[in-house]
Amino acid sequence: MRTLTKTLLAAVVVAGTLAAGLAIGQQTSQPASPDAPAAPASEAALLGGAPAALPMTPKNVRAITPPVTPVGMPVNAEASTEVQRGEYLVKLGDCVACHTQKNGAPFAGGRPLETPFGTVLSANLTPDDTTGIGRYTPETFYRAMHEGVDKDGQHLYPAFPYNYYTRITRADTDAMLVYFKSLPPVSHPLERNQMPFPFKIRSLMAVWNVMFLDKGTYTDNPDKTPEWNRGAYLVEGLGHCQACHTAKNPLGGNKKNEAFQGGLFGNWYAPDITPNARTGIGAWTPDDLHEFLREGRNVHSAASGEMGEAVQFSTSQMSDADLGAIVTYLNDLTPSPEKAVSAPDKQVMRQGEAIWGDQCAACHRTDAKGVPRYFPPLQANAMVQQGNPTSIIHYILAGASKAPTAKAPTQMAMPAFGWKLDDQQIAAVATYARNSWGNAAPEVKESEVSKLRKKISASYTTPAAHAAATAAPMTRPGPGTFAPSGTSSTDNGTPQAGRMATP
């Protein structure tokens, strides 16, 4: 009995560990129907929750071609309507983001999901019989979405958010399959599971499911309004917001007592989206949140990276009614608790202030109020004040590019500074931004910057490498940017930036 217990425990640990970063299972995320309950959908690996985002490492950057009206759509009016409904649900779930590789056919899979345990490629969702979902029936598709088991009885990894999708109604699941079956089939052979033993053993996920999978479609709360229930269905299900915005336990399950309070997602930190006025969206009006989801920016913030994709391919294409429902639900969440913050080192703040004046003030302004809807303010900025500084470090190291939307097509960009600021300098200016103009957040450590720099890429360490690795505007330093040693820190772009600040 003791041996059996140990074996089971080991399996649980392995399964949970897998969940932390393992790849997308064999299916895709799905949207919810306007009148149906919701299932939590997640596009991120279980261990991470990621945020409102920035640029990814070059090998993960992908150009997604928005899906066009599929050829071969049924001529039958009823069937055509079901295809269109399914298409909308798929947009609600932002399925294209994970299931489209760089420059690849929409939904044909192949996007690499790199985990601490190996690489998994996203599944092909086109109706190809051999490499896609052509042989899926409504029953097997429903099982994959709700139980994490594919048509052949193999367990899917919870990076495919079936633990959220289980809340999606049967009618919505069926409609999504109808849409996918209407797409042109694409043959795309993939060796999807590239993880080493024992992590590639899918059956271990059965243990994880026992611990963390709560089966059952969403049920309306009779004490709440229809709008609130619709918002819950979308946020907890198709939108799978907790996949990024909720911290995970060591086995990859949600920390339920920290729901929506922010979580680490890969090389980003998905911020707190509770009504906390300092670190969450409590200072945003409903119109502010609606504008952010529709346009990818507002007077408080701008979406880029993973969140930028979610806005570009999902929330910007939602109906106003669904956006309003999401706003209603999020604003009704319990605000995250405030945490005490120690004052940062004064010398670090002085150095950070000098670097801010050199590098940041031109766009974000000296008073950090920015330029509304173009250069986000850092004053009272929730992302800047997160307990985890991963995102602000990533912004400074690698830059960011705002996702274009129909209502806000201008793709504003922030340049990368990792090529000219060292780890200590970035830590200093990040600390300064997090603790000035009324902001308050833990001091950023040099070691935190160093660790993230190594993870994201060496491509941003020199002007030449950075220019070659990125195509975003405003990121390519001009000739002669490096100044000779001993130059005053007021000379923008020198290795000494900030170090000569007067005490």
Can you offer a commentary on this structure?
The chain has two domains: 2-331, no CATH class; 346-469, Cytochrome c-like domain (Cytochrome Bc1 Complex, Chain D, domain 2, Orthogonal Bundle). Helix content is 36%, strand content 4%. It has helices at residues 2-21, 77-92, 95-98, 138-147, 162-165, 170-182, 205-212, 226-238, 242-245, 286-295, 305-313, 320-331, 346-364, 390-398, 423-434, 446-456, 463-469; strands at residues 112-115, 118-121, 263-265, 268-270, 400-401, 413-414. The strands form three sheets. The chain has a two-stranded antiparallel ribbon. It has a two-stranded antiparallel sheet with strand order 3-4. Strands 5-6 form a two-stranded antiparallel ribbon. A hairpin with a 2-residue loop joins strand 1 (112-115) and strand 2. The protein is globular.
Helix and strand element order: HHHEEHHHHHHEEHHHHHEEHHH
Tally of contiguous helical segments: 17
Radius of gyration: 23 Å
Strand content: under 5%
The level of helicity is: 25-40%
Largest sheet, spatial ordering of strands: 1-2
For the sheet with most strands, the description reads:
2 strands, antiparallel
Could you report the average pLDDT, rounded to the nearest whole number? 80
The oligomeric status of these chains comes to single chain
Could you tell me the number of beta strands? 6
User: What is the 3D shape?
Assistant: globular
Distance between the termini: 67 Å
Computed structural class = mainly alpha
Tell me the domain tally.
2
Low-confidence stretches: 1-75, 470-496, 498-503
